[in-house]
Amino acid sequence: MSGAIEVREPAIDDQALLARLRDKIEARRMQGLWPEPLPDFSLSEPPSVDDSALQYHLEQAHALHEQVWVGLSLAPSAASQVPILGRLWASVRRQAHQLVLYYLEMAISKQLAINKHMVGALNRLAESHQEILALRQDVGRLRQRIEVLEGRAERAQGEYDGKA
Amino acid sequence: MVVGASPGDAVFDQALLIRDALVSWGCASEIYACHLHPSLEHLIPHYTRYRANPDDIVLFHYSLGSELSAFVAGLRCQVVMIYHNVTPPEYLASVSQELARLAEQGRRELPEFRDQVVLALAVSEFNLLDLRAAGYTNTGVLPIVLDESLYEVEPNPDLMCRYGDDAVNLLFVGRIAPNKRQDELLKVFYYYHKAFEPNSRLFLVGKTPDPAKRYLDQLQGMVRYLGLEDSVVFSGHVSFQDMVSYYRLANVFVCMSEHEGFGKPLIESMYFGLPIVAYAATAVPYTLGDAGVLVHDRDHPLIAALVDELVTDDALRSCIIAGQREQFQIYRQATMLCSLRQYLASLLPELA
User: Are B135 and B176 in a shared domain?
Assistant: First the structure.
């Protein structure tokens, strides 16, 4: 192993190979075939949503947006314990509650459809938010690069003027 | 037991191979999965349908945190773990927050099975380090293998016609992702293309998950900036046949990835007789063994010169390919199944 490269094949001397590669690069340089050095490509990873509150609210909205159904909930009343009339009273109460639930479910169905659209829209907005953060980073980096290039251009112009 | 069952998935492919081998050895065997690809829903039962028998041996393919872990932890039978590596969550955060969460769960829960698991097998020496660090003692290595018959498929004639000229083709296979460092690969290719072989191409074969689209945009921006638009091919998601075609078209496989749990494309390259140049990170040196060429620095000009040497020096190329063919022997099905039988013989005397 020669540090930069490692060939574990015993028939190959990686020191000699490394020297050959360096000669090869030098020969290309001497022939003027070497390309311009690479600029600093500082590629950023896609930023995650850094607003933890936004993330939390989105998760909650996603988890809860369909959990709005309610079941029949009838607390026992003293009147229900009265012989004969109590059973009749309990039956009337149950029917009344069922009727209320019927209309409630109609309203909830409409609300559910609205919730789905709201959660979908919020997710789209969160994606846009991420995109804006990423674009801001890009703009910052491009500004820096422009400043570097302007500096180089000014120096080159100065050298050119000096020679002229 | 596998977390996910989908066609072409390396973990599921290995589970299938093992099931078929067990059946051929006279052992009843069935695969159960937690998440099923729609095309497999009628073929692979959901894990909740499994009813454990105290005499059963459950082979638990561990690759990610999931609800399957709690299920396996509650089983009252012998469990053998096959550990496929859990990608560190930081590498997945840019791909999927949910995957990153499951990976974090997978890493955290790994030590919790050590008292229950009677044998823990890792798919590489690199992954074995994880198992030992997690406290597993009865361990071994059972590598991922290739089903070689699949790779004998005819290549796609359109691709062979389009790219089958005298250009030198460099190849990397893997999803577009920041940790795969396709940006580093572009830098290597820039020097190779400009200084050594202008008649060359770089194939970047692999899909781009939605959250990595921005990284793809950045890579494409780099390609435009470097003036390599006509020489870099982003294939996107490809069929198996197309993937085989790219391997057949390539002259050198170059990998600059900084995290590989195993690196199946490395053994695919060995199979196709492609010399490999790879950055020595995570499992890569273990998967390559004594084969291929490892680079320890991101010295782009030097790696470009190395690629050129592998293309132009026939003796060097042949020597590297011969070493890779030798290394490939351990990734053959027969070798892996022989090891598996030996491991299981301690639990199932009829396999001895």
Answer: no
Cβ–Cβ < 8 Å for A122, A61: yes
Task: Give the nearest chain A residue to B298 (CA atoms).
Answer: A4
Residue A98 lies in a domain: yes
A30 in B contact zone (CB under 8 Å): no
* Residues B250 and B276: beta-carbon distance below 8 Å: no
Flag whether A95 is in a domain. yes
Answer whether A145 touches B (CB < 8 Å): no
Closest-CA distance, B23 to chain A, in angstroms, reads: 39
Q: What are B70-80's pLDDT values in tens digits? A: 999 999 899 99
Least Cα separation, residue B264 to chain A (angstroms): 20
State how beta strands B168-173 and B252-255 pair.
parallel
User: Considering the entire predicted model, what is its pTM?
Assistant: 0.73
Closest partner residue to B309 among A21, A28, A33, by Cβ?
A21
Q: Do B154 and B296 reside in the same domain of the chain?
A: yes
* Domain presence at residue A14: yes
State whether A35 and B194 contact (CB < 8 Å).
yes
Question: Nearest Cβ partner of B293 from A5, A43, A134?
Answer: A5
Mean pLDDT rounded to a whole number for chain B: 92
Same domain, A81 and A143: yes
Are A60 and A119 members of one domain?
yes
User: In angstroms, rounded to a whole number, what is the distance separating the alpha carbons of residues B204 and B175?
Assistant: 9
A76 and A147 belong to one structural domain: yes
Residue A133 in any domain: the answer is: yes
CB contacts of B178 in chain A (<8 Å) are 43, 45-46
Higher per-residue pLDDT: A39 or A100: A100
Mean pLDDT of B96-104: 81
Residues A80 and A13 in one domain: no
- b/e string for A81-120 if b means 16 or more Cβ within 10 A? eeeeeeeeebeeeeeeeeeebeeeeeeeeeebeebeeebe
Full residue range of the structural domain in which residue A17 is found: 1-35
Question: Do B314 and B337 have their domain in common?
Answer: no
A146 touches chain B (CB under 8 A): no
Query: Is A6 touching B (CB cutoff 8 A)?
Result: yes
- For residue A3, the distance in angstroms to the closest alpha carbon of chain B comes to 7
pLDDT over 90 at B218, yes or no: no
pLDDT for the residue A48: 46
CATH number at residue B193: 3.40.50.2000
d(CA B170, CA B191): 13
Q: For chain A, state the CA radius of gyration.
A: 37
What are the Cα distances from residue A152, in Å, to A38, A157, B65, B226? 15, 8, 52, 19
Residues B317 and B188 in one domain: yes
